[in-house]
Design brief:
single chain; alpha+beta; Hypothetical Protein Pfu-838710-001; 21% helix
Length: 229
């Protein structure tokens, strides 16, 4: 199926010092967009997939206009039997992004997790043939988790996510003890998301945040935080 240009939306990120945690919510609610909480806060977990040579990582680092991240996402507890894992392809073109998502068969993430466990879950999942082919040569590269809160503008045209408590763990295709963890992340991340037709008014909302605009990729940051990749 052809991808329509309007299926992409704008995604602007802001880097916030972890020490500024107590002021973030007030900054969101005082924004001209009049943001209100949306959904319940929850813990987001991701397994990022990449080639052994980290091809997708280097596309991001090198600043390619068109880039992709492949991850498996679930919510709640980090370890154990994963409830309703979702395979996601995060496609970016400049500041525009979109996602393609596919339900996966449940599997367990623990000290016995390997690439073989993941490959078995992928093989048993109902995935389209082109998606299966796009996964060829990819393996587990990074595990991360964070606490996410959701907000929506009063006119429902803009959404903000607030990610805090970011944690990153080394993950390999072979045996994983999950004991190799990056140092505490000194950042939080706000992300402003909106459809292309609402771009004209987005600058008012964006400039009202007293935080630095960033291109920070959690995947890239996590890989860089763990020596030895």
């Amino acid at each position: 199926m052809a991808v329509l240009p309007h299926s992409y939306r704008y995604e602007r990120k802001f880097l916030v010092p972890a020490s500024a945690w107590s002021t973030v919510e007030s900054r969101i609610k005082l924004n001209p967009g009049l943001f209100l909480p949306l959904y319940h806060p929850r813990v987001v977990n991701n397994i990022y997939l990449d080639s052994p040579a980290l091809r997708l990582y280097f596309l991001n680092v090198d600043g390619a206009t068109d880039r992709t991240k492949v991850r498996i996402r679930w919510y709640g507890e980090l370890l154990g039997r994963l409830p309703r894992p979702i395979l996601e392809f995060k496609l970016k073109s400049g500041l525009l992004g979109r996602k393609e998502s596919f339900a996966l068969k449940s599997f367990s993430l623990d000290e016995n997790f390997t690439g073989e466990v993941l490959q078995r879950a992928l093989a048993e999942s109902d995935l389209p043939a082109p998606i299966r082919r796009s996964l060829d040569g990819l393996e587990p590269a990074l595990l991360n988790c964070y606490h996410r809160r959701y907000f929506q503008s009063v006119d429902r045209r803009y959404r903000v996510t607030w990610d805090s408590g970011l944690e990153f763990f080394r993950l390999r295709d072979g045996h994983n003890s999950l004991l190799c963890q990056a140092a505490p992340c000194p950042h939080q991340v706000l992300e402003l998301k909106y459809d292309q037709e609402h771009a004209a008014d987005a600058e008012i909302i964006s400039t009202a945040f007293p935080f630095r605009v960033t291109k920070m990729s959690k995947y890239v940051f996590g890989v860089d935080s763990l020596d030895g990749y």
